[in-house]
Amino acid sequence: QCMAKRFDGSQQALDLNNIRTDPDLVSQNIEVILNRKTNMEAVINIIKENIPELTGLNLSNNRIQKLDELTDLVSKAPNLKTLNLSHNELKTDRELDKVKGLKLVELWLNRNPLCDFFKDQASYISAVRQRFPRLLKLDGHDLPAPIGFDVETPTTIPPCKGSCFGSDDIKVLILRFLQQYYSIYDSGDRQSLLDAYHDGASLSLTTPYSTQNPSRSSLGEYHKDTRNLKRIKDTTVRFRLLKHTRLNVVAFLNELPKTQHDIASFNVDVNTFTNTLLSFTVSGVFKEVAVDGKSRESTMAFSRVFVTVPAGNNGLCIVNDQMFIRMATTEEIRRAFVAPAPTPSSSPVPILTAPHQEMLTAFSQKSGMNLEWSQKCLQDNNWNFDVAGQVFTQLKADGKIPDVAFIK
Amino acid sequence: MFVILLMFFSRLSQNLTRLYLDKATLVWNGNAVSGNDALADFFDSLPSSEFQVQTLDCQPVHEQATQGQTTLLVVTGGTVKFEGNKQRFFNQNFLLTAQATPNNDQPVWKIASDCFRFQDWSS
């Protein structure tokens, strides 16, 4: 009866503000204390059974500490849009999680201990909106309309693909460049990389931010020179960490540990190319090679951006070089440095005659290609060793032979 | 510059395409997207996300590559959580180029290229 009085049929709203002091109840000596579980449950049940179409509920001034009993409202009173919980004793915003299924548009939470927890208005609003993304009014104030997506928010992300070269010509150009660059880089002396860099080239490197002691991690050698502008604010330090001019760049590279890159694992994304600029991002893994035979080999992963300008003879010259280096994951380590399985041929492989076998071995040795590719080259040229050799040399000079051909 | 990044990583996807040059390309985990309309559609198709930028580095791009047009290479890394998906590490780099604005005296940065990849994109 009391509740009936407090129910506003036109608004579908139930006002249970300070219900304890409700004159009707008091006159009947009925004490409704909503911060007591049984009392609250009873009220919720009445709502569930009689007014499930409820759109507004006022529970203010009731010393409520917990919202456990209200969880049922999420399913049983789905139209609930306005909820007033002000002047209560809710201690943390986690209480809101118990009713976060409600599609609230208006919420009152002021005068609850939880409000004092937030150091500013923005974080308070943010915490509330996390639970009620459609909220438009909080504590009587209009909130800026939430920018969301139409009713159904997508949760699928586009499938991830491998290298994105943009064109075959660029692919050939870049692969050849990478092959040359990394064979020098892994050779133990990076001095001749000078030829790959522009006079005015820049280089810098970053490593992931870690709370661990940096010198103790295997990334120690790289951590020393990490240029993370989020952490380093001193302009002198920032300046020092950006290596400038090719002499400085290569000198720095020469100090880095000896490496062995898994070129087959490389992934390349081409960002931009104009007639003066080709910029691409290479990612992959490499091993740090133990020089003294004592230190353990670690496998690392990198993401490296090269900004290049064209250089004579169909080559590239690096003007900007930015490296990000981190430890490889177990999955990456497992997949690294594994020779790709030879592609199964649809036609049956003919058994080679002895002279052809000999020729094959010799050709493979001379060209550096693996047996599969050597055989193909010989076959395509009618097992004429000299002709095959010439064709091979020409193709190699043109950069038309893919890296996989050389992986034994 | 940080303003751009913060804007970029917030939920204001409608404003995102304004940051890009008309002819800019985005390569997102190997998917190439180009042109303002395609970019807008692409960003709309992504679930809402929360980014945490952990590393940030940048270099001025040599003028020989840009024919004198002031350009910055910005490289970032951190974590991102797309709604409905697990949190992942990402690396992203941009080429930002200064563009004069017709009405304003002050030039603005525009994204000329954007390359984004999860670190574990193949799993």
UniProtKB/TrEMBL annotation, chain A:
<dbReference type="InterPro" id="IPR002075">
    <property type="entry name" value="NTF2_dom"/>
</dbReference>
<dbReference type="InterPro" id="IPR018222">
    <property type="entry name" value="Nuclear_transport_factor_2_euk"/>
</dbReference>
<dbReference type="InterPro" id="IPR057125">
    <property type="entry name" value="NXF1/2/3/5-like_LRR"/>
</dbReference>
<dbReference type="InterPro" id="IPR009060">
    <property type="entry name" value="UBA-like_sf"/>
</dbReference>
<dbReference type="InterPro" id="IPR032675">
    <property type="entry name" value="LRR_dom_sf"/>
</dbReference>
<dbReference type="Pfam" id="PF03943">
    <property type="entry name" value="TAP_C"/>
</dbReference>
<comment type="similarity">
    <text>Belongs to the NXF family.</text>
</comment>
<dbReference type="Pfam" id="PF22602">
    <property type="entry name" value="NXF_NTF2"/>
</dbReference>
<dbReference type="Pfam" id="PF24048">
    <property type="entry name" value="LRR_NXF1-5"/>
</dbReference>
<keyword id="KW-0509">mRNA transport</keyword>
<dbReference type="GO" id="GO:0016973">
    <property type="term" value="P:poly(A)+ mRNA export from nucleus"/>
</dbReference>
<protein>
    <recommendedName>
        <fullName>Nuclear RNA export factor 1</fullName>
    </recommendedName>
</protein>
<dbReference type="InterPro" id="IPR030217">
    <property type="entry name" value="NXF_fam"/>
</dbReference>
<keyword id="KW-0677">Repeat</keyword>
<keyword id="KW-0433">Leucine-rich repeat</keyword>
<keyword id="KW-0813">Transport</keyword>
<dbReference type="InterPro" id="IPR005637">
    <property type="entry name" value="TAP_C_dom"/>
</dbReference>
<keyword id="KW-0539">Nucleus</keyword>
<dbReference type="InterPro" id="IPR001611">
    <property type="entry name" value="Leu-rich_rpt"/>
</dbReference>
<dbReference type="GO" id="GO:0003723">
    <property type="term" value="F:RNA binding"/>
</dbReference>
<dbReference type="GO" id="GO:0016607">
    <property type="term" value="C:nuclear speck"/>
</dbReference>
<dbReference type="InterPro" id="IPR032710">
    <property type="entry name" value="NTF2-like_dom_sf"/>
</dbReference>
TrEMBL record, chain B:
<dbReference type="InterPro" id="IPR045875">
    <property type="entry name" value="NTF2"/>
</dbReference>
<keyword id="KW-0963">Cytoplasm</keyword>
<dbReference type="Pfam" id="PF02136">
    <property type="entry name" value="NTF2"/>
</dbReference>
<keyword id="KW-0539">Nucleus</keyword>
<keyword id="KW-0813">Transport</keyword>
<dbReference type="GO" id="GO:0005634">
    <property type="term" value="C:nucleus"/>
</dbReference>
<keyword id="KW-0732">Signal</keyword>
<dbReference type="InterPro" id="IPR018222">
    <property type="entry name" value="Nuclear_transport_factor_2_euk"/>
</dbReference>
<dbReference type="InterPro" id="IPR002075">
    <property type="entry name" value="NTF2_dom"/>
</dbReference>
<dbReference type="GO" id="GO:0005737">
    <property type="term" value="C:cytoplasm"/>
</dbReference>
<dbReference type="GO" id="GO:0015031">
    <property type="term" value="P:protein transport"/>
</dbReference>
<dbReference type="GO" id="GO:0051028">
    <property type="term" value="P:mRNA transport"/>
</dbReference>
<feature type="domain" description="NTF2">
    <location>
        <begin position="1"/>
        <end position="118"/>
    </location>
</feature>
<keyword id="KW-0653">Protein transport</keyword>
<protein>
    <recommendedName>
        <fullName>Nuclear transport factor 2</fullName>
    </recommendedName>
</protein>
<feature type="signal peptide">
    <location>
        <begin position="1"/>
        <end position="17"/>
    </location>
</feature>
<comment type="function">
    <text>Has a role in nuclear-cytoplasmic transport of proteins and mRNAs.</text>
</comment>
<dbReference type="InterPro" id="IPR032710">
    <property type="entry name" value="NTF2-like_dom_sf"/>
</dbReference>
<dbReference type="GO" id="GO:0006913">
    <property type="term" value="P:nucleocytoplasmic transport"/>
</dbReference>
